[in-house]
Write a sequence for this structure.
């Protein structure tokens, strides 16, 4: 049983990092990223590229984490001039372009077949690394949240014009947040590649983005604890379908589809009845004169 | 969310209680668990489901004959969703929670290799029924394949097309390891015999229409189309070819996986190389049993699954349930086992060698064996 | 010459299949101001309904398609009443996320009911040929049905009172409501139109190809790409966008660039078709942001 628990904890930790990354973009800054799977995929493919081309692991990690924010900045640049829903379409499209490119250009990392990468043989070590990454990401996000930048981002989220009247250029801060949060997701991707030991296009489908969204919206997009809680619930639901299928003798196809339907229902129900998520963002008061 | 989940669980519980009694294996000894990993929710789950059926059929046959040393075989089927992550999750659960010694796997290399990585250090046994990447040879001693490598079948298809007098050929395969692997070896063999490859088309799986993909062939007018692929996709490709008025014959690997779209148009036009034994008395008997049980004609992976489970069962019977002993017994029992897919022989890497190959042609609404 | 005709035929056929689904996305965008990702699910639901009516209830295909379209229209109204009507006042981003939830829910339920494997309508149509270019009788029916639906939609929007009301709501919601246009009822009508056209498109798509629960992802990007090319809130712009996209795709994979530039024959591999749809969408969004943003604000 221990191996399975270790595996589940590792999964939850990695997906929580993706959730926190989305929390910074959506919860804190109000950016609707429908391509959250993209930085994750870029990170993983950095590792895949290194493995295929005989580069050391650290080089793959560097490529993955370096390329993710770069692409992020490229994608965010037009956001200053686009309203949110157009930007959402751009990110959705960018994620698919990347996946299609990996699928069809076999020179990068094995094309449709995918590529083997060095696998962390020690599962406990993998879990510890994932937890370290999660802790680091959470602490960083927490600091960012409490910093003057965090306050400004909230203003930006609620009212871009107000932020602009304060003399702040919204785009600059959106750039910073995107770069930071895409590095996080890229790191999660690198770690995921080495935990799984394999990178393939089938891991980075559009649906993956919405599993992350479900977790973030469920837990409460505006708090880190909410994001981690939401991720844990969503990932454990995913894992538990195996046991439900075995125990209920229902076909696993049916159980798997009902699980996804439940995710969809969660997204809708949370918006209808508890838009702030399970753990809401506390009201904050600031005294502007005290600083 | 929590409420919805508990409602779901409650519904499942009710169904479980009503369905428990016939499904459960009851024997005095605890049953031997065998894992099965298949993609039950991917884009084309049919072949995978057939593989599971084959395993079930073999397990039933073994159980009817008294099981393994008096213990029944209980199958635990897990979904790999065609994703590495889900495949690993499935394998971790089987090895760690269910404590199985062996798992029978359906899935491309993106699923099979991560599972093999996991199984090798744990000393588990994997029976591979579908992945045919040469990389799987790195897991000799852990992984045993019941299907032959693509290059063996591909080469046969290439020679076959040339032997039918085709001078030029176009390739139409799905853009996956199976399709492109078979294409490359078939093209090499076809060119070796003096044929000319006009065009290689690797289409994206699961697309609704391949007319645009096949368009180029109208002008190229190849003597033959060489192909491989899975059910729904092949049906769509046939439809596109028919609608575009492309009348070339199709020489394919594994014609039994293909789904014919229009019987009259396809009559005599589709032929190819398939695994041996499909037409043998045993193959026929299994097919009849499968049709009776699942009311559909089984595809090749049914037989690969059947052979995998049979060999595993026979090895367990011979060696008891210690993993190392079963591993050692597998090649031995294979020597005297006459499989649904013919004689099974493994090299040191656990890859199947010298597989018997038969030729089939689609005629009068069904595939019929033709002389070699 | 025959290749040019063939390309034009293919463009028209694929363009029609996408256009009839895309108009609904643009229509709901113009009035409710959000990208409804659940729209493509109406096509899936419509196609499966038509399939069930035809296969299990024995209705002729044409009747099944019309019945399924009407039923899906009502289904769309129901979805609005259950979900979107209760969320009229949240941000467009919020609605968009909710629409993904709705989409995920519907597609999973369809998959749970019908299974992951493909289904096919048991129809077969003859191949016709003009000037060496091939098409089928069914292609003609698809193009004709789409053209008819477009004409009907155009008549409804520009020749009836309800259509005028819908256009008024799209151009200025507040003004329209002050002038006494019953917004709630008109939005109901809008959802009905969306559901009906999408279902019809889904059925045509399935007739041409095959039915499977993940056909939504096959249609999603081309549909949104067409809508984007057309200008997001322009109903017939979306239809035009579909044809433009289809032309771009068919041209790019048909032209033998190799022979044009060197001796060797080489064309863009067909699996790059998806790039063209996604790439066109991203490119248009990046190149025309000012115009789009300005219109969205106005």
């Amino acid at each position: 049983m221990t191996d399975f628990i270790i595996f589940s904890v590792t999964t939850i930790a990695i997906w929580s990092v993706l959730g926190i990354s989305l929390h910074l973009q959506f919860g804190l800054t109000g950016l609707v990223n429908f391509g959250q799977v993209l930085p994750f995929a870029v990170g993983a493919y950095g590792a895949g590229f290194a493995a295929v081309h005989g580069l050391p692991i650290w080089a793959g990690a560097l490529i993955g984490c370096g390329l993710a924010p770069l692409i992020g900045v490229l994608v965010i640049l037009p956001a200053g001039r686009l309203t949110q829903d157009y930007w959402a379409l751009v990110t959705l499209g960018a994620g698919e372009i990347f996946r299609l490119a990996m699928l069809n250009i076999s020179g990068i990392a094995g094309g449709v077949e995918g590529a083997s990468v060095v696998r962390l043989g020690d599962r406990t070590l993998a879990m510890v690394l994932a937890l370290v990454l999660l802790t680091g990401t959470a602490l960083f996000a927490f600091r960012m949240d409490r910093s003057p930048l965090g306050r400004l981002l909230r203003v930006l989220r609620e009212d871009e014009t107000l932020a602009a009247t304060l003399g702040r250029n919204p785009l600059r801060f959106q750039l910073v947040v995107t770069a930071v949060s895409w590095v996080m997701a890229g790191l999660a991707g690198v770690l995921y590649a080495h935990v799984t030991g394999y990178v393939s296009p089938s891991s980075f489908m559009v649906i993956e983005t919405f599993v992350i969204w479900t977790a973030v919206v469920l837990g409460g997009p505006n708090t880190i604890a909410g994001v981690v809680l939401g991720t844990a619930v969503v990932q454990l639901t995913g894992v538990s379908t195996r046991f439900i299928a075995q125990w209920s003798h229902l076909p696993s196809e049916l159980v798997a589809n009902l699980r996804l339907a439940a995710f969809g229902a969660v997204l809708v129900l949370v918006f209808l009845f508890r838009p702030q998520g399970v753990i809401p963002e506390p009201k904050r008061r600031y005294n502007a004169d005290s600083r | 969310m929590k409420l919805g989940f508990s409602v779901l669980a409650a519904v499942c519980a009710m169904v479980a209680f009503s369905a428990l009694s016939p499904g459960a294996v009851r024997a005095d000894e605890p049953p031997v668990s065998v894992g099965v990993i298949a993609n039950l929710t991917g884009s084309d789950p049919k072949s995978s489901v057939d593989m599971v059926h084959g395993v079930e059929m073999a397990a039933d046959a073994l159980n009817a004959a008294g099981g393994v040393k008096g213990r029944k075989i209980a199958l635990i089927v897990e979904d790999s969703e065609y994703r590495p992550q889900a495949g690993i999750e499935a394998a971790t659960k089987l090895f760690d929670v269910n404590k199985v010694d062996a798992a029978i796997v359906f899935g491309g290399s993106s699923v099979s290799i991560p599972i093999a990585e996991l199984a090798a250090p744990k000393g588990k046994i994997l029976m591979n029924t579908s992945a045919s990447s040469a990389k799987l040879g790195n897991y000799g001693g852990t992984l045993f394949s019941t299907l032959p490598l693509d290059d063996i079948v591909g080469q046969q298809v290439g020679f076959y097309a040339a032997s039918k007098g085709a001078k030029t050929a176009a390739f139409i395969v799905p853009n996956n390891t199976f399709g492109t692997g078979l294409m490359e070896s078939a093209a090499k063999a076809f060119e070796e015999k003096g044929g000319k490859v006009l065009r290689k088309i690797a289409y994206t799986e699961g697309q609704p229409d391949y007319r645009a993909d096949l368009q180029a062939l109208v002008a190229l007018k190849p003597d033959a189309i060489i192909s491989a692929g899975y059910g729904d996709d092949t049906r769509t490709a046939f439809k596109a070819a028919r609608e575009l008025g492309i009348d070339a014959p199709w020489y394919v690997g594994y014609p039994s996986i293909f789904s014919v779209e229009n019987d009259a148009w396809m009559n005599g036009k589709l032929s190819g190389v398939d695994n041996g034994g499909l037409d043998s008395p045993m193959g026929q008997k299994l097919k009849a049993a499968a049709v009776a049980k699942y009311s559909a004609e089984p595809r090749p992976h049914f037989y690969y699954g059947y052979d995998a489970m049979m060999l595993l069962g026979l090895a367990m019977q011979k060696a008891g349930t210690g993993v190392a002993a079963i591993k050692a017994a597998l090649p031995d029992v294979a020597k005297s086992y006459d499989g649904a897919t013919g004689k099974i022989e493994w090299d040191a890497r656990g890859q199947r060698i010298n597989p018997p190959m038969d030729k089939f042609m689609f005629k009068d609404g069904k595939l019929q064996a033709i002389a070699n | 010459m025959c290749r040019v005709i063939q390309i034009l035929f293919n463009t028209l056929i694929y363009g029609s299949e996408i256009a009839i689904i895309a108009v609904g996305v643009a229509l709901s965008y113009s009035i409710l101001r959000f990208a409804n990702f659940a729209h493509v699910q109406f096509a899936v639901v419509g196609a499966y309904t038509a399939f069930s009516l035809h296969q299990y209830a024995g209705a002729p295909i044409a009747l099944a398609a019309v019945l399924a379209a009407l039923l899906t229209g009502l289904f769309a109204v129901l979805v609005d009443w259950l979900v979107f009507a209760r969320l009229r006042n949240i941000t467009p981003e919020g609605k968009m996320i909710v629409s993904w939830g709705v989409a995920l829910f519907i597609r999973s339920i369809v998959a749970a009911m019908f299974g992951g494997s493909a289904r096919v309508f048991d129809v077969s149509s003859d191949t016709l040929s003009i000037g060496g270019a091939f098409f089928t009788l069914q292609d003609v029916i698809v193009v004709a049905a789409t053209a008819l639906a477009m004409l009907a939609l155009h008549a409804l929007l520009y020749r009836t009172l309800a259509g005028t009301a819908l256009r008024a709501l799209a151009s200025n919601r507040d003004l329209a409501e002050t002038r006494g246009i019953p917004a709630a009822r008109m939005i109901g009508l809008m959802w009905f139109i969306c559901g009906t056209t999408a279902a019809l498109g889904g059925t045509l798509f399935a007739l041409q190809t095959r039915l499977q629960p993940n056909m939504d992802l096959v249609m999603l990007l081309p549909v949104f790409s067409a809508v984007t090319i057309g200008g997001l809130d322009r109903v017939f712009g979306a239809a035009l966008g579909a044809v433009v996209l289809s032309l771009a795709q068919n041209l790019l994979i048909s032209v033998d660039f190799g022979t044009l530039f060197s001796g060797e024959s080489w064309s863009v591999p067909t699996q790059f078709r998806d790039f063209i749809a996604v790439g066109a969408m991203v490119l248009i969004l990046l190149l025309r942001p000012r115009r789009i943003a300005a219109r969205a604000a106005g």
Summary: Chain A is about 75% helix and 0% strand. The radius of gyration of chain A is 19 Å. Residues 2-204 of chain A form one domain. Strands of chain A lie at 115-116, 198-199.
